[in-house]
Amino acid sequence: MPSYVITEKCDGCKALKTTACQYICPNDLMVLDKEKMKAYNREPEMCWECYSCVKMCPQQAIDVRGYADFVPLGASVTPMRGSNDIMWTVKFRNGTIKRFKFPIRTTAVGEAKPYADYKSSTEDLKSPLLATEPDSLGLAQLSVPKK
Amino acid sequence: MDNFETVEVTTDFLIVGGGMAASGAAVEASYWAKKHGLKVTLVDKAAMERSGAVAMGLSAINTYIGIKDGANTPEDFVKYVRNDQMGTVREDLVYDIARHVDSTVHLFEKWGLPIWKDEKGNYVHEGRWQIMINGESYKVIVAEAAKNALGMDNIYERVFIVNLLVDEKNPNKIAGAVGFSVRDNKFYVFKAKAVMVAAGGAVHIFRPRSTGEGLGRAWYPPWNSGSSYATMLQVGAEMTQMESRFIPTRFKDGYGPVGAWFLLFKSRATNAFGEDYLQTQAEEIKKWEPYASAKPVPTPLRNHQMIKELSEGRGPVYMRTEEAIKKITDTTPGTDKDKKKRLKELEAEAWEDFLDMTITQAGLWASQNIAPEEKPSEIMASEPYFIGSHASCAGAWVSGPADIAPKEYTWGYNRMSTVEGLFTAGDGVGGNAHKFSSGSCTEGRIAGKAAIAYIKDHPETPVVDQKKIDALKEKVYQPLKTFEQFKGLSSDPNVNPNYIRPKMFLFRLNKIMDEYVGGTSMWYTTNKPMLERGLELLTMLKEDSEKLGAENLHELMRAWENYHRLWTAEVHLRHVMFREETRYPGYLYRSDFPKIDEVNWKVFVNSRWDPQTGNWQMSKKPVVKIVQ
Ligand SMILES: Cc1cc2nc3c(=O)[nH]c(=O)nc-3n(C[C@H](O)[C@H](O)[C@H](O)COP(=O)(O)OP(=O)(O)OC[C@H]3O[C@@H](n4cnc5c(N)ncnc54)[C@H](O)[C@@H]3O)c2cc1C
Ligand code: SF4
Ligand code: SF4
């Protein structure tokens, strides 16, 4: 359905202030049916299969069924995202299974320091040097076109 | 409208969008704003953590010059981009990206993005300008740095910007923006001294190849709807190269990336007879000299070669993955065990390439039992998109960097449009292709600093007429009212003579563009009479946009997205009509002017919609070289 919610697993993110899937979907597709306390994708044909909701759901209640207009049935791609790496399980239509694990970040979550530890070299707003330059370029100065 | 509260936010610098360019602007502008006691505010229609084109992640950073290692110079990059775009780029802007972009990439690495390294500790290159990353969390990391710089109090998520505001006394000066929350009944009025629009490019202007459930699986993410172009146009900003659409050739239907296959694995792509189309069509592109002799061959020309094979009935075209992998493992030195190990590595690299940025393609391969080491895989050219940061040039006409730009290109602050105080970056800037993720973030940084400099020089607070704001609020929520008022007339709310729902509006737009303005069904071909007829139909669609009906806030966003698409479509059509030549075959063919015309058309095509008269003005602007 592109992404779809497995009824049995979704708990409507009761424990959270907002539902994780609704918070994250870049296309505003996931909504919570407050009566059933189950989320659903309200516009499957506008889903990019970006997997943002799948990766984030605390109950692993979201899966993806490939676009029915061009994807043969029976395969699946399932992520398990941790804080430093991600595990993927790819299941083929013919039953073959492949597993992959890749790193996703080298710093602790929340620790991206905007200017890192680079020095700034100018106070001049009109200078073409940006805040961390030229230090962050690894150069002594900014390039200008050769005449 | 009583039940819609108005929230007014007064700031100094407003950033519209939360993608790569906006994040760069947030980091840089915050630094300078803090020094000067100014406020920076960011507004995104989605959650920054996963908004924009990098939401899913990426497997490569496509722009890295490597100046400090002596790998390339900014001059090399300018020459490459100039040729790739058939001679028509703003060299000052391209050079500016090249001289700064490495610093952005070094910041990414510090922020926590894993970049592949070889044994010596150097970045692993995919191609000359591209470096490989483990980029699943690319956007999460970049957004985090931006949020840390801005502070969460200065970020408004899930607010869709509909219109920009201009100054009461000077209509060519920016004053802020208005939009609505897609979560609750709040209308937002942002008042600002400078605004940067970085709302990405546009998709679903043309009918996509998949129109059922796969409608959303365009190559370009379905959530960027041309807001950058439409909002800037409507306040009178001049645009450039809006005829420069982008047609990516990718793995068919899933749109998985082909860069690693062509560049890293050195794969061939062959036609129905097993022939390499670059060879069968080698003569064909000579009509586009001097660009055809450039190395690498420009993207539009390579597209042209494939499109010719397909349109003349020699498809399908396959990426020969099995051949490429065999060649690499065969030439791997050592024992059979070493070769097997290399094969395993290649397999993981190939799958990661998809899993990091186009998961659909991994699913599609699995569903068709395609193992790349065993079977080749089909590739195809997509429908047209607008993305000024990729291998195309659509966007606003902006002032260049004062220290290096020629006088024709400087009238104000770096990356400022022709509207005072209105800046843009990333997909919003025209004539400046091949920025990609790293260059877009870099351009955001450049614009962010320039905007703060502008504010210091123009400290006066712009004035906006309250009546105008009230009228805009009325207009923004009109589709909800229209729906509410008329929905009872028919037993099925989808079919009603008094309104058109956003989805059908989208289909109508897609059909016009596809059939008259050179979409996939026409193999990207059009001519003047077709364009004139297309404009007639588009004009009726514009009239009908006043009858858009929306049931809820989500659908209201769809309505305004499609209105922005409509403006993008119209400006594109007008540019295509104006440029009487075929400069970018493989992207667009004028059947009435099938050749390139270096004498008359080696220029930028610019357009401006005049907010006072509602008239369009088209013009030519010179291409000035700054690198010989
Ligand atoms: C499929 C694909 C593959 C790519 N692959 C690569 C690659 O391998 N390597 C590489 O370096 N680059 C790659 N790129 C290019 C890269 O993604 C872009 O260059 C970059 O994202 C452009 O940055 P941007 O800020 O202009 O737009 P985006 O990053 O797309 O950000 C746009 C922002 O605007 C917001 N927005 C949109 N409309 C509104 C509105 N009306 N109101 C408020 N907010 C709004 C969005 O939510 C988003 O936050 C790829 C692009 C695509 C589409
Ligand atoms: S994130 Fe998962 S558990 Fe929470 S509402 Fe969505 S589907 Fe249900
Ligand atoms: S896969 Fe992406 S686009 Fe689809 S519903 Fe989930 S978050 Fe939204």
Verbal overview:
The complex is a heterodimer of chains A (147) and B (628). Chain A is 7% helix and 23% strand. Chain A has 147 residues and is mainly β. Chain A starts with a strand and ends in a 44-residue tail after the last strand. In chain B, a hairpin with a 7-residue loop joins strand 7 and strand 8. By secondary structure, chain B is an alpha/beta fold. A five-stranded parallel beta sheet of chain B has the order 6-3-2-10-17, sandwiched between helices. Chains A and B meet through strand 5, strand 6 and strand 7 of A and helix 1, helix 3, helix 4, helix 10 and helix 11 of B. Residues 2-3, 24-25, 27, 29-30, 41, 47-53 of chain A line the site of one iron/sulfur cluster (SF4).
Question: What is this structure, in a nutshell?
Answer:
Chain A is mainly β.
Topology:
The complex is a heterodimer of chains A (147) and B (628).
Chain A: E1 3-5, H1 20-24, E2 30-33, E3 38-41, H2 52-56, E4 62-64, E5 76-81, E6 85-91, E7 97-103
Antiparallel strand pairs in A: 1-4, 2-3, 5-6, 6-7
Chain B: E1 5-10, E2 13-16, H1 20-35, E3 40-44, E4 58-61, H2 74-84, H3 91-111, E5 131-135, H4 138-150, E6 155-157, E7 159-166, E8 174-181, E9 186-191, E10 194-197, H5 227-234, E11 239-240, E12 249-251, H6 259-264, E13 269-270, H7 277-280, H8 299-311, E14 317-319, H9 321-330, H10 336-355, H11 359-367, E15 377-381, E16 395-396, E17 422-424, H12 436-457, H13 466-486, H14 502-516, E18 525-526, H15 528-544, H16 553-578, E19 589-590, H17 598-601, E20 603-609, E21 616-622
Helix pairs in contact in B: 1-4, 1-12, 2-3, 3-12, 5-16, 9-10, 13-16, 14-15, 14-16, 15-16
Flavin-adenine dinucleotide binds at residues 16-22, 43-46, 51-54, 58, 60-62, 160-161, 198-200, 219-220, 223-224, 227, 389-390, 426-427, 435-438, 440 of chain B.
Number-wise, the strands of chain B total 21
What is the largest interface, and how many residues per chain? Answer: A-B, 80 and 92 residues
Q: Report on the biggest sheet of chain B.
A: 5 strands, parallel
The residue-averaged pLDDT of chain A reads 96
Q: Indicate the proportion of strand residues of chain A.
A: 15-25%
Q: If you average the pLDDT of chain B, what whole number results?
A: 97
SSE succession of chain A: EHEEHEEEE
First and last CA, distance of chain B: 59 Å
> How would a textbook summarize the main sheet of chain A?
3 strands, antiparallel
Low-confidence stretches of chain A: none
Strand arrangement across the biggest beta sheet of chain B:
6-3-2-10-17
Per DSSP E runs of 2 or more residues, the count of β-strands of chain A stands at: 7
Oligomer: heterodimer
Helix content range of chain B: 25-40%
Overall shape of chain B: globular
